[in-house]
């Protein structure tokens, strides 16, 4: 599975790099939203209870040109991710399972922009709680309601290699002996599907309210894990974001 992810990234990069290289000299601006707020959703992958927690985000990266327009076509950009820790002492049903530290993820993402539509594929390497490869493929569509309100709809598949799925959905023989779960060794692949509606309401030209409602569902070996209490994984995020601009 790790090799398949690497091959996929190389294939995406080979498509995006020539187009990006031809266009890079015309880039005059890069901007993105950085925000903080609260999230209400599962405490861990497969949790059947929701809890309130902090939410941080960096999203909606836009690469502009000297015409002031968003780049159309392919672009290769950084991709970052974060997964919070999982502690058995915080969840009675996980008693006997090993704790998992928080994880930072870093990698690359390929975007293809065509008008208001954005298709993307990303791959990241985890550092911390897991050291596997994860990624997603998806598509977004932008609706500009008025000069203050913008909406995005998203459909996405999430992928993880064997290392990732074993960390969050597997049960070792030792864990099985000390818990109520049977031993389980999941394989990597598509582990979840998400659909989402996101909104950004501008308070000022650079400051906005961000909101996002996501319906996720665990699939395949991940969804069949004995750890999973509920396959459906809804989440609500709300926060304040600041638009940062960098001119070249």
From TrEMBL:
The keyword Membrane applies. Its main location: membrane. The keyword Hydrolase does not apply. It is found in: Cell outer membrane. Pfam families: MipA. Residues 1-21 form the signal peptide. Keywords: Cell outer membrane, Membrane, Signal. InterPro entries: MipA. Belongs to the MipA/OmpV family. PANTHER family: MLTA-INTERACTING PROTEIN-RELATED. This is MipA/OmpV family protein. It comes from Paracoccus aurantius.
């Amino acid at each position: 599975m790790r090799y398949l992810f690497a091959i996929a990234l190389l294939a995406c990069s080979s498509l995006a790099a020539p187009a990006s290289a031809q266009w890079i000299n015309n880039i005059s601006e890069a901007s993105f939203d950085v925000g903080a707020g609260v999230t209400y959703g599962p405490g861990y992958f497969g949790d059947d209870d929701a809890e309130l927690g902090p939410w941080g985000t960096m999203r909606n990266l836009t690469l502009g040109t000297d015409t002031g327009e968003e780049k159309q076509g392919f672009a290769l950009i950084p991709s970052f991710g974060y997964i919070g820790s999982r502690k058995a002492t915080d969840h009675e049903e996980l008693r006997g399972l090993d704790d998992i530290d928080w994880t930072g993820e870093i990698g690359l993402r390929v975007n293809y922009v065509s008008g208001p539509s954005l298709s993307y594929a990303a791959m990241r390497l985890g550092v911390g709680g897991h050291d596997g490869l994860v990624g997603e493929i998806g598509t977004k569509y932008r609706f500009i309601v008025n000069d203050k309100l913008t909406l995005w709809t998203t459909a996405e598949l999430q992928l993880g290699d064997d290392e990732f799925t074993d960390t969050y959905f597997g049960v070792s023989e030792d864990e099985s002996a000390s818990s109520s779960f049977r031993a389980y060794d999941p394989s990597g692949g598509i582990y979840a599907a998400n659909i989402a509606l996101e909104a950004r309401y501008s308070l000022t030209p650079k400051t906005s309210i961000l909101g996002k409602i996501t319906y996720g569902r665990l699939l395949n070996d991940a969804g069949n894990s004995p750890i999973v209490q509920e396959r459906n994984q809804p989440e609500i995020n709300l926060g304040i974001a600041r638009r940062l601009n960098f001119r070249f």
